[in-house]
Design a protein that fits this description.
The protein is mostly helical. The protein is built from 5 helices and no strands. The structure holds fe (ii) ion (FE2) (2 copies).
């Protein structure tokens, strides 16, 4: 987690990070439910995770990703992040928590999601501070609002 550059002071980034924390918690809960053999709880946690990720990804991809990808220095950094979103979405849409192989895939996906989040929080988000201008931030915030109808950014 980047604690140095000040990117966490930006309201939009604070929201992205809060969403990461909720998703990480839900993923941890799902894995612990699998450990206990509580498939019903695992199913619920994964469904909540999929729901949280759906709006999170929409906000990222149409917001900070799109704005950052205009700088070709970051295009190759962002493409795999989007691919990883799609891979996790596919897994969550098709997972059968009663299937032992799917349980292995879920455990692996939760670990990989930590790495994915690091690439955003320690890489892309800090870089956005020196790359994006006011109009870019306005566009990114608008994308977040569209992805979270009726919600407000976290207060200062
Ligand atoms: Fe992401
Ligand atoms: Fe993210």
């Amino acid at each position: 987690m980047c604690h140095y550059c000040g990117c966490r002071q930006i309201p939009l980034i604070r929201d992205y990070v809060a969403e990461h924390e909720r998703v990480t918690d839900l993923g941890g809960d799902a894995v612990r439910a699998l450990d206990r053999g509580d498939l019903e709880s695992a199913r619920e946690k994964l469904a909540a995770m999929a729901e949280e990720l759906r709006s999170h990804w929409q906000g990222e991809e149409n917001g900070i990703f799109r704005a950052m990808a205009r700088d070709e220095q970051y295009t190759d950094y962002i493409a795999p992040l989007v691919r990883e979103h799609r891979e996790v979405a596919e897994l969550l849409a098709t997972v059968d928590v009663a299937d032992a192989r799917d349980q292995v895939r879920i455990r692996a996906a939760v670990v990989e999601l930590h790495e994915h989040i690091s690439k955003e929080e320690d890489g892309l988000f800090p870089a956005s501070l020196t790359t994006l201008g006011g109009a870019d931030w306005d566009e990114a915030i608008e994308a977040w609002r569209e992805a979270h109808p009726g919600a407000s950014l976290l207060p200062d």
